[in-house]
Amino acid sequence: QVQLAESGGGLVQPGGSLRLSCAASGFSSDYDAIGWFRQAPGKDRVGVSCISKSDGSTYYARSVEGRFTISRDSAENTVYLQMNSLRPEDSAVYYCGTAFLPCAYSYPLGIGNWGKGTLVTVSS
């Protein structure tokens, strides 16, 4: 089973940027989609974005579209989430997860195998 490790979180002022990384180790054939999710205190985990390895298709939650960009480095087995124009409501623990099927078939409910998460705090 693939292991995931998120990094890149931190404290940033509103309007600032962060880039999160999700490094996957293990057999690359064990997944197609990698999705980013976030969970704020007292709230459910919700999908933010997804990218498919097989066709490169991407998906975004409406709340982040135009501000966040998901990308992948196949050689490094790493997926990135570039977050710009951050808002206080973006504060959450961000997790990445995988699915065997592409995002079109697996995102968001079919994503699992979570990493431990990285905390993003947007505050002045």
Secondary structure layout:
Elements: E1 3-7, E2 10-12, E3 18-25, E4 33-39, E5 46-52, E6 58-60, E7 68-73, E8 78-83, E9 92-99, H1 103-106, E10 118-122
Parallel strand pairs: 2-10
Antiparallel strand pairs: 1-3, 3-8, 4-5, 4-9, 5-6, 7-8, 9-10
Task: Write a structural description.
The protein is mainly beta. The protein has 1 helix and 10 strands. The chain has one helix at 103-106, and strands spanning 3-7, 10-12, 18-25, 33-39, 46-52, 58-60, 68-73, 78-83, 92-99, 118-122. The strands form 2 sheets. It has a 6-stranded mixed β-sheet with strand order 2-10-9-4-5-6. The radius of gyration is 13 Å and the shape is globular.
| Beta strands, count | 10
H/E element string? EEEEEEEEEHE
Overall outline: globular
**Beta strand %:** over 45%
Q: Which spans of ≥5 residues are poorly predicted at pLDDT below 50?
A: none
Helical fraction equals under 10%
Gap between N and C termini = 40 Å
C-alpha Rg, in Å?
Answer: 13 Å
Widest sheet: strand order? 2-10-9-4-5-6
SSE class = mainly beta
Largest sheet: 6 strands, mixed
Report the mean per-residue pLDDT as an integer: 94
> Number of DSSP helices?
1
Condensed summary:
It contains one helix and ten strands, in the order βββββββββαβ.
Structural descriptors:
single chain, 124 residues, mainly beta, 6-stranded mixed β-sheet, 4-stranded antiparallel β-sheet, 10 strands, 3% helix, globular
